[in-house]
Design a protein that fits this description.
The chain is α+β, with helices and mostly antiparallel strands. It has 15 helices and 10 strands. The protein folds into 3 domains: 37 residues, no CATH class; 108 residues, DNA polymerase, domain 1; 167 residues, Orthogonal Bundle (hpI Integrase, Chain A). Helices cover 47% and strands 13% of the residues. Helix 5 crosses helix 7 and helix 8 crosses helix 12. The radius of gyration is 28 Å and the shape is elongated.
Length: 391
């Protein structure tokens, strides 16, 4: 049953003001009077109900603070408390800093509650018309127009900032939820599925340590820089085929990981390459003692193998796709990936569909490159038929 507005609060017109005002009691019984900043009575009553709901949920002071909080103030709070390690990785924090510089230039003086979906869309269109600034010895010069992916990253950071504000009840909803990105971005965040023959071609042209990286990730799904690069020899139990992950991106990532025979052999080969170092991927040039980047070697390897560029991280997606396509339940794949969110399968299902299409198009023994025995020949006296046995 709806609350009787007359008993809990009232909306009235105050002399000398064009806006309607509201009066209500707070939690301790003290009367509060506030302007609704509207001349529409229905809108004023809606704001009164929001005030009463916030009072009953003991978040009235938070809501009131949110109304007076500027975007710039909230961004400073977010960057200090929700962007730095250990809440986020240092790499994510640096990316957030780059995006926040542009966001604060547009919204810093605006009230957090005043930012609307139209404001966000206007900001995105304006950014799409701008050009990248390139630093030179003589100062800055304009380069090519900003890539849509760059502007989309700023939208993602803004959405994350405002999502935290929603959870803190500083704003009722995230204006980014009603925003449509002004241009279509082809292939954004769509992982690349690596076929078995493609993987073998990459391994033939890769240096020894990178060949081991490819085999380990496609057999274990480890995160490249957060989990694999810092691995020490003590974390690998070759006798029991288990790898211990003490630090990960998420709490569910900290776990013991079973190893396949191919992964065990790759770890054994890498231990031989590491020599006397405690790390599997040592680096004398890095302050951490292990390699921090494989980008250059990965790019050159793909070029030698004549494979179109894709992210090294996509090998983790390939691992999940192979599990899913092999019939492993999504719940188990989520556990093997050590993911806390099962929504990750939205992107994996796209690659699984691609695998099925490839098999249906070829319909022969070479259709499925993941396994050696993928077809069953059924031959009668007149014809020969092949049926995919496993995707």
């Amino acid at each position: 049953m709806a609350r009787p507005i007359e008993k809990d609060g009232v909306v009235f017109r105050r002399e000398g003001s064009k806006f309607l005002w509201m009066r209500y009691r707070d939690k301790d019984g003290t009367y509060r009077r506030e302007s609704t900043f509207t001349e529409d009575r229905q809108e004023a009553l809606r704001k009164l109900r929001l005030r009463l709901d916030a009072r009953d949920q003991n978040v009235l002071e938070i809501v009131r603070r949110g109304e007076s909080l500027s975007f710039g103030q909230w961004v400073d709070t977010f960057m200090e408390n929700y962007s730095k390690p250990p809440y986020r990785t240092q790499k994510t924090h640096v990316a957030n800093l780059r995006a926040v510089n542009h966001l604060k230039a547009a919204f810093a003086a605006r009230k957090l509650l005043d930012i609307s979906p139209d404001d966000v869309e206007s900001y995105l269109r304006k950014r799409m018309r701008q050009r990248a600034l390139i630093k030179t010895a003589l100062g800055y010069r304009e380069g090519r127009p900003l890539k849509p992916a760059t502007v989309h990253q700023e939208l993602r950071v803004l959405r994350r900032i405002l999502n935290v504000a929603v959870r803190k009840r500083l704003i009722p909803s995230n204006p980014c939820s009603g925003v449509e990105f002004p241009v279509a971005i082809r292939g954004l965040f769509r992982p690349h599925y690596v076929t078995w023959s493609e993987q073998q071609r990459i391994e033939r042209h890769a240096p020894a340590h990178l060949r081991n990286v490819v085999r380990i990730i496609t057999e274990t799904g480890l995160r490249v820089y957060k989990e694999l690069m810092p691995v020490t020899k003590e974390q690998v139990d070759l006798a029991n085929s288990v790898l211990w992950i003490p630090d990960s991106k998420t709490p569910t990532g900290v776990a013991e990981l079973p190893l396949t025979a191919m992964a065990v052999q790759a770890f054994r080969d890498q231990m031989a390459l590491a020599g006397s170092s405690d790390y599997l991927f040592p680096s004398e040039e890095s302050a951490t003692g292990y390699q921090r980047s494989l980008r250059t070697g990965w790019r050159l390897t793909l070029r030698r193998a004549k494979v179109p560029y894709f992210r090294l991280y996509d090998l983790r997606s390939t691992y999940a796709t192979r599990l899913s396509a092999g019939g492993v339940a999504d719940e188990w794949v989520t556990q093997l990936l050590r993911q806390s969110d099962s929504k990750v399968f939205k992107k994996y299902s796209q690659m699984k569909l691609r695998m099925q299409r490839e098999a249906l198009e070829k319909m022969n023994r070479q259709a499925n490159e993941m396994t050696g025995e993928v077809t069953t020949a059924v031959q009668d006296s007149k014809s020969l038929c092949t049926v995919p046995a496993q995707f």
